[in-house]
What does this fold into?
Amino acid sequence: MHTQESLLNDLKALGLDGTGTLLMHSSMKSIGEVEGGADTVLDAFITYMKKGLLVLPTHTWSYINQEQPRFEVAHSPVCVGILPELFRKRPGVVRSWHPTHSVAALGREAKAFTAEDHLFDTPCARGSSWGKLLDRKATILLVGVDLKRNTFIHGVEEWVDIPGRLTDDHEMLYTITPDGTEISVPSRRHCGLSWSEHFWKVDEVLEARGAMRKGKLGDAVVRVCDAALVAEVITEMLKEDPDLFSDNEPLKDPERWVGSRSQ
It folds into this structure.
């Protein structure tokens, strides 16, 4: 059985910067049996990142829409797992106000990091928390999940302005702030194919280019992603091949993206 101490040792072995910015996507089940359950996992991460900034996605895109347009910052449940759902309720955690792609943050500059998400009409705008991950040279940790769950790649697609990713029209969504104020957040949504289901295709390229490495946390396979390098590599690939994620087939010539580039 894993404990807080053993999980802390795993985090140290992963070589994470405890004073930096860390965003985690996760599958609690993948970690295995943990003494104290999900709360112990969160305790380990919070302890490890006590001098930095810990961020978890608190998305609500699966149910906040035109039919159910009101996102309550303090109450709307997360649609991406138990760890972020518990994390958003922890003392001191600040949740951003974006109606579909909010994040929750704890630690250094958490309020500033989350403050502006609702000012943008797209899920992963360059000026939002997703873009700030790039500015802060953050680490993105995928615990027991693969690149298909890496929302940051949606951000890169948005910043490169790949066509067909976002609706042209806006939905009128509303955010209910923690003090009960209702604000309008007109929002464009992801559309078209299930693009993220194809993100796995660049797994080997990112690893070969030094943008990602693998390790373990408990029983889970972990992908440790350098946000800046991930953005650099995927921007390069999308500019050369905007249809990169348009199908679910393996890359035809992965060496094209590895061999001729600087490491």
